[in-house]
Amino acid sequence: MSERRVGRVVQIRVYPVKSLAGSDVPAAEVGPTGLAGDRVWAVVDDGGRPVRAKDAPVLATLAPADADAATLSAALGRPVRLEPLAEQPGVAPVHLVSRQAIDRAALGNVPEGCSADDPRANLVLDLEGQDDERSWVGRTLRVGDAVLEVTRTPKHCLGVYAAVRHAGTVTAGDPVLL
What is the pTM of this model? Predict the structure, then answer.
């Protein structure tokens, strides 16, 4: 089966601490568990329970550079700490969103609980033609050196989730081949 170009990567983001703000990077290694350095830490309370931005929105405003126990505890007004994020079976390692989906969301076509301002995607794409990434479920993408299988649409977010079928490097500007 032949590949066709459907767009290009315009932004790459990693979220080193789950629920905190992300960081733009020019390129990323993509392995079986997703982008290198992405979602490797979690904020937990004294009982070891994860603290999520859904329950503590201030987390999403904090940069990864602010991710130490003292700063996080001060921002939340209670003691918390960082722990390595346990592997989460069933969670897709890569989140892709098109600028077109972000534009649709800005016009009001957005799932409840999702933000058009920050879709928390790893790869933001600019699509060519009338493609919509939601139609890619069950299909394979080549992005840079990586091969991704689009597995599903998120319940409360824009874009699609993908599993990594072949590890590789993705760089801003890389073509996206379907």
Answer: 0.89
CB atoms within 10 A of CB 123: 28
Question: Pseudo-torsion of CA 124, 53, 161, 142, nearest 10°?
Answer: 40
Beta bridge partners of 34: 31
CA distances from 173 to 27, 69, 93, 141 (A): 10, 36, 21, 15
Q: What is the pLDDT of residues 143-164, one digit of tens each?
A: 999 999 999 998 777 899 999 9
- Both tokens assigned to 34: 């997703």
The first and second tokens of residue 147, run together, are 């091969």
The token duo for 20 is 């905190």
Q: What is the pLDDT of residues 107-147, one digit of tens each?
A: 877 666 666 666 789 999 999 987 789 999 999 999 999 99
Spatial contact of 30 and 96, defined as CB atoms under 8 Å apart: no
Cα–Cα dist 57/53, whole Å = 4
Question: Do the Cβ atoms of 64 and 16 come closer than 8 Å?
Answer: yes
